[in-house]
């Protein structure tokens, strides 16, 4: 959504973002596509670059709706992914300079294996 809002004037960002959010708050892909089509029709002439980006990435951004058993609130944020990246950076900074790419990959892989075992 951030990529779309770059092409929207500051005064209209809040209202446009509210319309966009309605797309992803829908319970299934079909209703989300219907809402997206209404947004596209409403704003196509006013914000052509943003609408072009929306059309291009809509299908990919709605893939999470294909999994109804997932808690959409948990996957709608990148906080957990950012936390993993932060932990990887913290662990690799301790080492400083790795002798080879393989040694870096071993460290990161071992952390990710440890992380997934804690989840499982």
TrEMBL record:
Give the UniProt keywords, A-Z: DNA recombination, DNA-binding, Transposable element, Transposition
Tell me where the transmembrane regions lie: none
Q: Name one GO biological process term.
A: DNA transposition
GO MF annotation list: DNA binding; transposase activity
User: Which first-to-last residue range defines the signal peptide?
Assistant: none
A Pfam entry, by short name = Transposase_mut
Q: Does the keyword Zinc apply?
A: no
Q: Which parts form a coiled-coil structure per UniProt?
A: none
Q: What protein family is recorded?
A: Belongs to the transposase mutator family.
What is the annotated role of this protein in its UniProt record? Required for the transposition of the insertion element.
Q: What is this protein identified as?
A: Mutator family transposase
